[in-house]
């Protein structure tokens, strides 16, 4: 579903993503982990089309998307900061991308309500973001992604603003969502438990390169080195 072919990103003279090759299967849940500044967000944003690619190619769903606009890529991104429009209701926030796509009000409402039911947001559709809790806001941000029925969901530390209890609850909800929708998901996190429980495969990044890729249990039981062990596993 996603094919990164020797993707690099340079800011000025500084290389922050350095020749990354990675294939993500359809329906797979892939988690990026690694220290702050290693390039997780940049790599995700390059898949989303929010960051220009310095060299290499991004393929999504069998199409070369290296130069495609974000809206044309069939991806939806969920941010840590929610990025909801404060002056719009939940329904308007969720339907905004559909409006941009030119869908009429009735169809937008139907699609927004269907997505809202999946996330138990039905009763909040007419509220403004300011009247929501942090967990509800993040649910709306996820709902806004679902409503577009993307081939690929991209999550950049979506739960790190939430308190511990809510984080667990939302993690379970995201796992359930992945089971229901069976979409391809790429998920960035600092949280080892999130990585271990959500991922089909974990990608450990370090200094803009892939240090190791593998199933959670494989990385946990058999890390290639102490760096990987420090993030996921326990050295033997
Ligand atoms: P992570 O998400 O893993 O914490 P980022 O992808 O945000 O890392 O950043 C990777 C590196 O790229 C960092 O060194 C960061 O300072 C740098 N970087 C990110 N965005 C920009 C930018 N717009 N201009 C210059 N440097 C940037
Ligand atoms: Mg980041």
Automatic annotation (TrEMBL):
GO cellular component: ATP-binding cassette (ABC) transporter complex, substrate-binding subunit-containing; maltose transport complex
Sample GO molecular function, one term: ATP hydrolysis activity
Domain of life: Bacteria
EC supergroup of this enzyme: hydrolase
Enzyme Commission identifier(s): 3.6.3.19
Record has Hydrolase as a keyword: yes
Start and end residues of each ABC transporter domain: 2-232
Keywords: ATP-binding, Cell inner membrane, Cell membrane, Hydrolase, Membrane, Nucleotide-binding, Transport
Keyword Cell inner membrane: yes
UniProt similarity note: Belongs to the ABC transporter superfamily.
Full protein name: Maltose/maltodextrin transport ATP-binding protein MalK
Full-sequence range covered: 1 to 236 of 350
């Amino acid at each position: 579903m996603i094919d990164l072919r020797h993707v690099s990103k340079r800011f000025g003279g500084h290389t922050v993503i350095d020749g990354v090759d990675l294939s993500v299967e359809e329906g797979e849940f892939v988690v990026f982990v690694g220290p702050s500044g290693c390039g997780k967000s940049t790599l995700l944003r390059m898949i989303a089309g929010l960051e220009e690619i310095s060299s290499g190619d991004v393929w999504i769903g069998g199409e070369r998307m290296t130069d495609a606009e974000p809206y044309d890529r069939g991806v939806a991104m969920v941010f840590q900061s929610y990025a909801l429009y404060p002056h719009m209701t939940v329904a308007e926030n969720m339907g905004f991308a559909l409006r941009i796509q030119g869908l009429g009000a009735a169809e937008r409402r139907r699609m927004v309500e269907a997505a809202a039911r999946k996330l138990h947001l039905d009763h909040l559709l007419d509220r403004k973001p300011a009247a929501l809790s942090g967990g509800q806001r993040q649910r709306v941000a996820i709902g806004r992604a679902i409503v577009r029925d993307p081939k690929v969901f991209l999550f950049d530390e979506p739960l790190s603003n939430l308190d511990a209890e809510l984080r667990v609850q939302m993690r379970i909800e995201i796992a359930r969502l992945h089971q229901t929708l069976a979409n391809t998901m790429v998920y960035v996190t600092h949280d080892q438990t999130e990585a271990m429980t959500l991922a089909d495969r974990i990608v450990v990044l370090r200094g803009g390169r892939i240090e190791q890729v593998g199933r959670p249990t494989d990385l946990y039981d058999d890390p290639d080195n102490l760096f990987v062990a420090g993030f996921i596993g326990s050295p033997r």
